[in-house]
Amino acid sequence: SIGIAGAAFANEDLAKMSENPKDWVMQSGDYANTRYSTLDQITKDNVKNLQAKWTFSTGVLRGHEGGPLIIGDTMYVHTPFPNTVYALDINNDGKILWKYEPKQDPNVIPIMCCDTVNRGVAYAPKTDDHPALIILNQADTNVVALDAETGKQVWKTQNGEMTDGGKGESGTAAPLVVKDKVLIGISGAEFGVRGFLAAYNLKDGSLAWKAYSTGPDKEMLVDPEKTTQLGKPIGADSSTKSWEGEQWKTGGGTTWGWFSYDPELNLVYYGTGNPSTWNPVQRPGDNKWSMTIMARDADTGMAKWLYQMTPHDEWDYDGVNEMILVDDMEVNGKKHDVLVHFDRNGFAYTLDRATGELLVAAKYDPAVNWATKVDMDPNSETYGRPLVDPKYSTDKNGEDTNTAGICPAALGTKDQQPATYSPKTGLFYVPTNHVCMDYEPYKVSYTAGQPYVGATVSMYPAPGSENMGNFIAWDAAKGEIVWSKPELFSVWSGALATAGDVVFYGTLEGYIKAVDEKGNELYKFKTPSGIIGNITPFEHDGKQYIAVLSGVGGWAGIGLAGGLLSPDNAAAWHGAVDQGREQGTEDQVVGTAGLGAVGGYAALADYTALGGQLTVFGLPD
Amino acid sequence: SIGIAGAAFANEDLAKMSENPKDWVMQSGDYANTRYSTLDQITKDNVKNLQAKWTFSTGVLRGHEGGPLIIGDTMYVHTPFPNTVYALDINNDGKILWKYEPKQDPNVIPIMCCDTVNRGVAYAPKTDDHPALIILNQADTNVVALDAETGKQVWKTQNGEMTDGGKGESGTAAPLVVKDKVLIGISGAEFGVRGFLAAYNLKDGSLAWKAYSTGPDKEMLVDPEKTTQLGKPIGADSSTKSWEGEQWKTGGGTTWGWFSYDPELNLVYYGTGNPSTWNPVQRPGDNKWSMTIMARDADTGMAKWLYQMTPHDEWDYDGVNEMILVDDMEVNGKKHDVLVHFDRNGFAYTLDRATGELLVAAKYDPAVNWATKVDMDPNSETYGRPLVDPKYSTDKNGEDTNTAGICPAALGTKDQQPATYSPKTGLFYVPTNHVCMDYEPYKVSYTAGQPYVGATVSMYPAPGSENMGNFIAWDAAKGEIVWSKPELFSVWSGALATAGDVVFYGTLEGYIKAVDEKGNELYKFKTPSGIIGNITPFEHDGKQYIAVLSGVGGWAGIGLAGGLLSPDNAAAWHGAVDQGREQGTEDQVVGTAGLGAVGGYAALADYTALGGQLTVFGLPD
Ligand SMILES: O=C(O)c1cc(C(=O)O)c2c(n1)C(=O)C(=O)c1cc(C(=O)O)[nH]c1-2
Ligand SMILES: O=C(O)c1cc(C(=O)O)c2c(n1)C(=O)C(=O)c1cc(C(=O)O)[nH]c1-2
Hints:
2 copies of one chain form a homodimer. By secondary structure, chain A is mainly beta. Chain A has 7 helices and 40 strands. In chain A, the strands form 10 sheets. In chain A, strands 16-15-20-19-18-17 form a 6-stranded mixed sheet, with no helix packed on it. The longest helix of chain A has 16 residues. The relative contact order of chain A is 0.13. The complex binds pyrroloquinoline quinone (2 copies).
């Protein structure tokens, strides 16, 4: 029938549209999350001439993550809370075609762990069931579908429970449109939120399926016999058995990162976040399925395979970073359709994405020290598990003990900032953190909607380094760094590889930079504010452009974004989070505020201030 | 002695520094307020190649007026409330050398009539008495002198009384350093503030002199015998006699505009604002010396001459716009050192600045209709006075009567946006408004610190026009428009003329534009937000640059800046201002909010959103 055909179109159209390099129809560029553009007008020879073409202030300050979408002549730009969405006219230097300004309860601001960020809107092409849609995952967990042409609301649904008797759930993840559904994640593992991924029907916003990260098999949408980890069925009650009592109910594993999709396998890929609390002593067991890569059927949500990277996390190494899908990669002499994932825990994983077979797991920053390696021996008892250095086990060292010198810091060797893959070079270009930490877990009690953190953290550059970041090239078949370009601060923006042999990324100081395939810097331009957004390429009237949002913030920039460099505000932050724990000197109070990022990134205030601006770059006419 | 020599240096150094086109040492560029730069690398031939070189977000939204100062390698940038000041390193793409963040009572925000603007900081060179200073006139009327090298406070003084038992006084005007003093204005005529100009000693911030705009001769620093208007002594009690009872005490005449200085005559020039209230029926008389150009001795504050442009104002035509000083201008066959002033009331005045002789008074927008002309007959009883068209007399038409079709609107043919003068062409380039209004005065009562407005205003483009602004060239000797370039909205930014035969200005949509001496548009670039700031030229490492602040707001942009396009907020605005008056339909409530600017400029929301960004432009390397 027409209805069914229409529904099918949504998916096919979007996949097809994502092959047109003139547009940028989803945050990741394509379902494979490669963030690669085949546009090649901007080359390594002429990129030095790049110039700002037009700019647009979003009217909102704090951390601007994600990036604009491009559909024909229209650019869709979103902001952090209050999550304003603009449709801008590309033909007219960004004249505002429509603006959507949700009214949200500002009480959501303090329950967002890592700034009031939003990783962008999704686009769904018109079908018989609905007009073309722009879908927004609001901070307050309302999901809104807007008519892409008019900005008028088509439907609205509530994905989580925010404040006021809620559970401290919030929304930051970019939605992903797959077929006739849209996938929506949830945030709040610092509030003991029980993570899930939900799929809503594009037609009317009704729930299609919901897969929890922890809990009973039925609620997790796992089949004890058919869902596998490393080739073996996970068995019954795999999650609940890995927690004490009912801790899985407040066990975290939120889904605030990026989602990928393989249309042929019809599988959706994503990772789950940290187990709650940050105090590992309080939650014995593997805490399944936090810190896990999940492969699920897009239609039903049923899990095909899972892989827990960091069982029983003791460092807050959320597993939510993007999964980049590459076909036909030769690993150890055999070709695989792989999934490559740069985890917070400092290991880069290459897996066969059809089976979940572990092919490569290697450190992508030599500073990583919490585990010596991932056990790659299929016959070992600890196959696939990281071999933890007891010196850096915050669980072993125990509550109220400060474990010093752990690398990476809680924000990982990479956090939300997505990497890019160039099929031309076969390499991944990865924005990374080069930061270590002290971590002191302490006992906390759970109250719904209240912080449930349980660790004091301080952060600093990796020993012997002055740089807090590197931009690296990675060979995912070999598990090797090809080159590494130091950056003063963590590179908190996404990267973009292009067929012009130029790779783009942004820095926390606010520079947009272009490098060649060897990491040589070819161009830089200081945008108004620190860049934690991602880079959108597009073509218009026969010319190639790139667009990027500036606006310092995110976890790394929370000192600036949340005003936590002020001792008063830092003390108030501790008052809200620490459940009465003594906090030491003023320096310590500031240093450990914002879950440790305030002290670590304090020097950022010498380079940039809050902002919220779009800059569109192109070559001279 | 060394001390005296040092004090003298402050003035001489600053005057000398202002002749160095590489720097920009005061908001107006020079004491004469010409805003002319002798830099000529950027020419009418190459300006089309101009490009953004680096940018900086100020971390503050709302209206950004004024512009950066340049002293050597350092750029000083200020913001609207909370009036953050940054010292930026020009050698390093604007790295932050220091940042000053005053803590101000946010209750000052609602007592600022026309957005939380600030027109910029002043610089005072080092003397034996003090280090080099950056002087800030805060919204809350605190005046702060900062060490230009470190940002540390050297002294602080309170210029007015803000809220909490105060009088609703606020600060927006740029200070002007003259010799060993700094001139500071006051805002608040919409709150019945009695205007004054104060001079503080640079050494320690102590008061040197204070000259009220209204009141007893002594407090006004006028000499009944020696202070003249149009060549005649003003006589005793000239102000108090021109008001009923003690109305002069709440009579307005604030000093929130620009100040000029003639070092040879040692005279300071500035204009006074509207009489309070906006309801003329309530305040019979000429309401002296509101709406007046003042020429005062820089050392003592004593007035040499005065000229009231709009006696008994009935339209809110504040007389505060800048006085541009030009030497040796030939008017009617005779050379004069003149002062040229584009008044809100739609007349451009050319006066002999030594004597106050009125040489030219002519409409600089043909739409002006409230007066037929200014009486230029020295023998006439009404010499120097505008001849009011009774049709547009809101006083005659009376309280609670809507007088329609008055041109210009209350915000005048020009408001705070400063014009520029090119000695190369002998012409003035003037950003103007092309807006008319309906004005309905009504009775109000005075309460200290509360709005004291008394008129409902709505604004719209001049009849027969779609453009709400023009950028014009003006011959001040002849009193003639040379050319006029229409702009969609009022041009609310300052203009800059350069020796490269290029004139720059910004638009409310956010474009920076360059035109040639004939008004042909040579270049435009869409900056992040609407431009109401002024243009700063400078040279660095042998290259010419221009810098400008974006950030829509000011009175024209108050709908966006104050959120008054929302019916709820507009109603709340009326609730605070209208003393209980009935406001009509929702459209009317929004339309007449913000003293009439919200409705008039509503379409601005289709072009730009709030911001606060610096953009530095230069030619390609
Ligand atoms: O556990 C969670 O639910 C959760 C949510 C978020 C988020 O939604 O932004 C972050 C994190 N955790 C987190 O661990 C983290 O490092 C982080 C960084 C950022 C960011 O935007 O910079 N968000 C988050
Ligand atoms: O009467 C006053 O004290 C006063 C103050 C100000 C100000 O300080 O900004 C403005 C005005 N009046 C005013 O009439 C006016 O048109 C105006 C425009 C602006 C602006 O910045 O856009 N300020 C002011």
